[in-house]
Amino acid sequence: MTLTKFISLTSALALISACGISEKQLSDFGKTADQTVQVVGTASTVTSDLLKQNEVTRNACAYLNGGSYTLASTPKTKLSPLLSDQKAVVAALGAYANAIAGALDAEEQAKVDEAGGTLATSIGALGEQVDAGAETGPTVSLLLNAIVQIEENRRISAVKAEMEKVLPFLNRLKELLEADQARVLAEMDQQIVEWERHNRCVLATSRHRANAEATFRAADQAKRALIANRKQAERAVQAMDALIDAHFEIVYGDGEFEDGLETLIAFLADLQAIKDA
Amino acid sequence: MTVTNKQARKRIGRAISDLLKVRDDYSGLSAAEKQTNEDAIVALKSEYFALDGAASSASYAEITMALTGAQTQLEEIKDKRDKFKNGLVTASKILGSLTSVLKLIT
C-alpha cells in the first residue's frame, strides 16, 4: 500500500468516525434527562408519598391523643387519575432515557472498538503464519476499523431515529403538563395542607415529651423539603423544554449519518484501488 | 422541487439545533440579539411540531405507549451492539486458536 493510499484511507476513517456523538453531548443529555424526569415527576411522586404519610400521621395524632387508631391502614384518598397518568408517563420517560444512555454508552462502544482491534491483530498473526503478504495486516486493520465505525454509525443513526420519533410526543407531554399544571398543583397543595394539619396535631401533643425538640426539628425539615418540592413541581414545563432542546441537539446536531455516506463510498473506492494495485 | 414534510422537518430541526448552539454561548450578543434568537427558536419549534400531527392530540397513556415502544427499540439497538462485540471476540478467539495450531504444524 502506498503512503498516499494509507493516508487517504485513514482520513476517510477519521471522517466516518466523526458521525458520532461526543461524550460531553452524551453526558449533558444524561444530566438533562435525569433532571427532567425528577422535576416532571415531583408532583405525582410527592403527592403519592404524602397520601401515605398523612394516613400514618393522622393515626399517630389519634394515638397520641388517646383516640382510636389503625396500624398499617391504607389511605382513604387515592391519587387522582390525572396524577396517576402523570406518574406512569414519568416512569416511561425515565425508562426511555435510561435506554438511550444504554444504547449510546461510550464505555461499551470502547469495548467494541477494542474487540475490533483484537480481531485485526489475530488476523494479522494468522496472515503472517500463512505468508499472506506485508500489506495484509494494515489493510485488514483498516477494514475492520471501518466495519466497526460503520456499525457504530448505524447504531447512532438508529438511536437518533427513535429520538426523532419521540420528539413530537415530548412536545405533546409538555402541552399536557402546562394545561394540567393548575389542577396538579392544587392536588399537591391539598395534601400539603393535610400534612401540616396532622403534623401540627402530633407536634401539639408531643410538646411536653422528652423528644419534643427533635420532633419539631424533623417536622420543620420536612416542611422545608415540601416547599422546595412544590417550587420544583412548578418547573415541569421548563424541564420538558430542556429535554426537548437536548433532543434537537442530539438528533440534528453535527455528524448525521447521511452526511457520512459520501465519505463511506469514497472509502470503499479506496479499498478497491488497493485491491487493484 | 417538492419538499416532503420529513425533509422540511429535518431542515427545521437542523436550524433549531444551530440556534440552540448559539444559545450555548450568548457572550458578546446584545439583549436584542439574544431575544431574536430565542424568538426564532420558539417560531421554528412551532413549525416543526406543526408538521407532525400524529402526536398533537395524544393522551398521557398514548405518550406512555410511545415512550415504552421507543425504549424497546433502543434496548434492541443495545442488544445488537452487544452481539456485534461478542461476534468480534469469538472470531478473535477462533483465529487465535487456528494460528496456534498452524504454528505447531508448520
Name the features:
heterodimer; A: 277 residues; mainly alpha; elongated; B: 106 residues; 2 domains; 3 helices
Question: What does this protein structure show overall?
Answer:
The complex is a heterodimer of chains A (277) and B (106). Chain A has 277 residues and is mainly α. Chain A has one domain. Chain A is built from eight helices and no strands. In chain A, helix 2 (23-64) crosses helix 6 (212-233). Chain B has 106 residues and is an all-alpha fold. Chain B has two domains: 1-57; 58-106. In chain B, helix 1 (5-24) runs antiparallel to helix 2. The radius of gyration of chain B is 25 Å and the shape is elongated. The N and C termini of chain B lie far apart (65 Å). Classes of the chains: A mainly alpha (277), B mainly alpha (106). The interface between A and B is large, with 53 and 47 residues.
Summarize the entry for a quick read.
The complex is a heterodimer of chains A (277) and B (106). In chain A, 84% of the residues lie in helices and 0% in strands. The termini of chain A are close together.
Proportion of strand residues of chain A: under 5%
* Low confidence ranges of chain B: none
Q: Give the fraction of residues assigned to helices of chain A.
A: over 70%
For the sheet with most strands of chain A, the description reads:
none
Order of helices and strands of chain B: HHH
Q: Determine the strand fraction of chain B and express it as a percent band.
A: under 5%
Strand and helix order of chain A: HHHHHHHH
Major sheet details of chain B: none
Structure class of chain B: mainly alpha
Write down how many β-strands of chain A occur, each being a DSSP E stretch of 2 or more residues.
0
Q: What is the overall silhouette of chain A? A: elongated
Which helices and strands occur, and which strands form pairs?
The complex is a heterodimer of chains A (277) and B (106).
Chain A: H1 3-17, H2 23-64, H3 81-103, H4 106-129, H5 136-206, H6 212-233, H7 236-251, H8 257-276
Chain B: H1 5-24, H2 31-50, H3 60-105
